[in-house]
Amino acid sequence: MALQINGEYVDDVIIRQEAASMRPRYEEMMQDMDPIAREIQLRDWAKENVIERVLLRQTASETGDPVPAEEIDERLTAMFPPAGDLEDCEAGTTRAGVDKDAARKDIEAQIRIERLIRAVGDKAPKPKQKEITAFYKANLAEFKTPPMLHASHIVKNVNDEADEAAALETIKAAEAELTSGTPFADVANKHSDCSGQGGSLGWFPLGEMVEEFEEVVSLMEPGQVSPVFRSGFGWHIATLHEKKPEGVRPLEEVNEQIVAALSRGAQEKALEEFVDALRAKADVKTIKKP
Q1: Torsion sign, CA atoms 81, 85, 90, 96
Q2: What is the pTM (predicted TM-score) of this model?
Q3: Which CATH superfamily includes the segment(s) 2-124+266-287?
Q4: Residues 251 and 142 sit within 8 Å (Cβ to Cβ)
Q5: Residue 288 backbone dihedrals phi, psi, to 5 degrees
Q6: Contact 98, 76 (CB under 8 A)
Q7: What whole-number distance in Å separates Cα of residue 123 and Cα of residue 208?
Q8: Cα–Cα distance measured from residue 170 to residue 121, given in angstroms and rounded to the nearest whole number
């Protein structure tokens, strides 16, 4: 059975293709359903998707300014080989064998749909500050920050190119220079296999570094320098500069992030309501294939 949407014929093959594209996303969610019921549900969802897409295309084709040919050609070039690569193709086709005129029409329709969706979204109400604050308070867990450490290190790797004894000898020499008062950054730049920037690792959350490294650094106080210790990578000396406890990012810091989330929600709701209105007044019939 095919569809007729506002007088436009839509072949059943389109619905079957939509169902096939949807199946991987919904298989797990529908795995406990009876196989026959599952296929019926999937087909119903696919049919609604096709109807909504056709209604959007029909509406978009009747509204908005013309689409510049340059914009269409730009997308066509991105999708298929440029004109200079078409020498061996039949006239009017790309190397992939796609009709260029048909492709241009599809691209124009897609651009018009994108314009329509943006226009509908632009009419969605902007979030008010009280809504932003309420979202922040209701979702504090999303804005938690883990304990953070700011540290530097000197490392001598142990691998196929550097044996254990040589790496330990070098790290011991670095430790001696630190004991004599040479600044940590200078010793790191001189001896570390990760030289540069004074061995700084910047800020990092607990759980990001190798376990042996974190076991040492997490117990240190700012300003302390560790003894030589071993990890799976090699020999280390670390110094802790600062530490921050677990906390919550302030509202001012995440305000734009919340605005974006609330705006997306409002735009999605506006589009859903717009499509529902199109669906309510659409003339959709199930017909026999000709």
Answers
A1: negative
A2: 0.68
A3: Porin chaperone SurA, peptide-binding domain (1.10.4030.10)
A4: no
A5: -75, 145
A6: no
A7: 43
A8: 62
In tens, the pLDDT along 70-118 reads 999 999 888 876 554 444 445 455 555 668 888 899 999 999 999 999 9
Q: What is the pLDDT of residue 151?
A: 97
Distance CA 33, CA 23 (A): 14
Tokens representing 180 are 């004599």
Q: Does domain 147-245 have CATH number 3.40.47.10?
A: no
Q: Given the structure tokens 């302030």, which residue do they identify?
A: 250
Give me the residue spans of the domains in the chain.
Answer: 2-124+266-287, 147-245
